[in-house]
# Entry
Amino acid sequence: MAPAEQVGLWVDRHGQEIHAYLWRFLGDAQDAEDALQETFLRALRYRGRPVAEPRAWLYAVAGNVARSQLRRRQRDEARFSQLDDETPAPETTGGRDLWESVRRVVEALPVKQRQALLLRRYQGLSYGEIARAVGGSAESARANVYQAVRRLRAAFPEEVR
Amino acid sequence: MSKHKDNEDRDLERWLARASRPSASPSFAVALDAAYGAGPGEAAWARARRRVHDRLKASEPRVYYDRVEATPVGPLWVAMTDLGLAAVSYGGTESAFAGWIGRHLQASPVRSAERTTVARRELREYLAGRRTSFTLPVDLTHVTSFQRRVLEAAQAVPRGQVATYGEIGRRIGRPGAARAVGQALGSNPVPIVVPCHRVLASDGSLRGYSGRGGLQTKRRLLTLEGALLV
# Structure
């Protein structure tokens, strides 16, 4: 099988969950689409090397791609922040407002905590699988999830009843 | 307090494992699920998927191949990479040859008469006795370094002459490797153009030829080149 064919099969088998992960991690549809392409192009460049667990490996590659995209975005945002100050904020609907505020809180989490939380709750990975996807141990994956939750509880306090 | 903490941890684990009912979720969980639960949606995935497949197709190295009809040694398949002629195959089906390209050249096979024009023309002319050498570059980047040295040594044997397996072994600094030399020549991916047929056993017997027609084809090529009397 030609490498592009192999990677094409991975796209069909694992692409949808990887896309969802990137969409959640990056919080932007266009960025997620770009990162998805980059993930599978990187997979293609690894052709010939056997990959024992393509799903876990693709999560790891996608995580690397997403982190470097975040760094690039931060640079760009720093560069263009002056321009931003002069542009009026776009009008938002209620749903959009919630999405923005949740996103802000989640994006303020340390990257490892954000990744671990999203992978556990929304991508359905076990702590062991998270460890393989982002490095470290299953225990540290669990600790990252719990630390993320602690910060989120503080950001969204329970209403006093 | 620690009892409460245990319960909280258990509820949290259930939420994380997507096993809890919404009524049990704390505020942060409700907010998070509202923002992240649904994901990008099927339409966004369909578009993203299509674009990934397009990018993969565009970035995959291609190998162009086509068939050379009715030569004196039968029909041939040829395959061209960006570097040159990478394969000549005696007959077989198109799907078998395309599959071989994918496996051995790590590329997508694309049938193209245009990209193989020179290869097909030179092979036809050579086999009809109207050409004595090839101008085509040969791409040997897909074989082992030992096989490459053997095939390059075979390329250096001039038309109309022959060498022995032992001589080729000596020329590449591996005297005594005659058997390995024979195997490397036997799996020559570019027969005819890389003239493995010019290499014989030390007693002058033809020994073997893995192309279609076997020794008869080897004899035919050597006769064509004037190395053997009919």
